[in-house]
Hints:
The complex is a heterodimer of chains A (about 290) and B (about 210). Chain A has helices at about 5-15, 25-35, 50-55, 65-70, 85-95, 130-140, 155-175, 180-190, 190-200, 215-225, 235-240, 245-255, 260-265; strands at about 1-5, 20-25, 40-45, 75-80, 100-105, 125-130, 145, 205-210, 230-235.
Amino acid sequence: METGTSRVKRGMAEMQKGGVIMDVMNAEQAKVAEAAGATAVMALERVPSDIRAAGGVARMADPTVLEEVMKVVSIPVMAKARIGHFVEAKVLEALGADYIDESEVLTPADEVFHIDKRDFTVPFVCGAKDLGEALRRIQEGASMMRTKGEPGTGNIVEAVRHMRLIMGQLRKVQGLSKDELYAEAKNLGVNYDLLLGVHETGKLPVVNFAAGGVATPSDAALMMHLGADGVFVGSGIFKSDNPEKFARAIVEATTHYQDYKLIAEVSKNLGAPMKGIEISKLDPSQRMQDRGW
Amino acid sequence: MIHPSGCRIAAGNQRMKKIGVLALQGAVAEHMRSIAAAGGEPVAVKQTEQLDELDGLIIPGGESTTIGKLMRKYGFMEAIREFAAQGKPLFGTCAGLIVLAKRIEGQEEAHLGLMDMTVARNAFGRQRESFETDLPVKGIEDPVRAVFIRAPLIKEVSPEVDVLSVYKDEIVTARQGHLLVSSYHPELTDDYRLHAYFLKMAEEAAENR
């Protein structure tokens, strides 16, 4: 009997496929998310848009938030640790979090080293803007990836950019000849064997979700079309006018992303989505996607 | 669809069996790959109308609350009960096992409620307690590699249910006529024997129809 094997950790993410993982800040929101059909929740003290608004250093949530949420839902509960902050991650593991997000939404604790994620029984999800970044995180032991997008903006443009780039790079690597892979491994800053696997399958070896700016059911469906295995929705749900309805609509649009009549139906009378931020208006120091390497 | 062996049809000169994988949420692609490798023709099922052409249906792992909700919303509860009533086989893994069970501990409402057993969700604990192990299964020669992820357990079965394997005294694989369940994920390994077992159930069911 073995726990924490790569199959067990990656397999847990496989079970999330086609699903929506929702940010929640308390037990009540967690129940709404579960009732709406979320496949997991991310327990946070503040959603990304509030983190933006508050400024200052954003850290791991108070453990009581995680405990409260774990008590009321039967679906998996995820939690965020700062980039490089392996003690926050160990604390989350000790608390029983089902998945840890080493997240650029929080203020990085280390500007050079990410967490050695192989050193944990609990699996990790990490963000990436491109294939090299995704493979570097997988090399460190990440069992699930997501686009970084630009969290808390309600603007899908960055998640689209990252997903398009990753999918395009996957196709490119698949088309390289074997001897070209060595130079590409050097370009991407990743190990050759990992890249060889990508070359042979044309896919990342782990599940890849969309995250960072999903604000409407159509946004979620768009990301599924672009190759996402599922969707994280952060500020989008509980910053909308009618979270319950909104959450259900996003779940259905993700499952039936090719059924446009259905997406039209679930998009009716949803009320206002979160307000959103134009990316070019964002001060460079406020760009969360530039955290990590 | 061509089997890796190059055979276009299954043994006995029958038409290759079409096995659906309920594709509302969860590990759909893995089951499709395993069915193809075991010699069947996999179909991703998103609409109830697709059930008519199938010889068997897999309800995959995922989140049972999500899958159950989407099944209700899109008319799959009635459609799959009807499918099962025709004697067509169903295979539920992990969340799929929960969906098939008549009774779920701590929950008032079952989902499909077809298989006469009581199940407990997340019976091993949280994700850090998830594990893999070698598991002997009745009817399969050598142990299978069983991957348990926040897995459910079968706490109680009626006499009609055949227990195919136990892990630490708890039931983890079972069959009741044309219904097969496992609390673990055979689709996450390269061992296709449980899928082959299910394909055989589909072939036998087709002969008896």
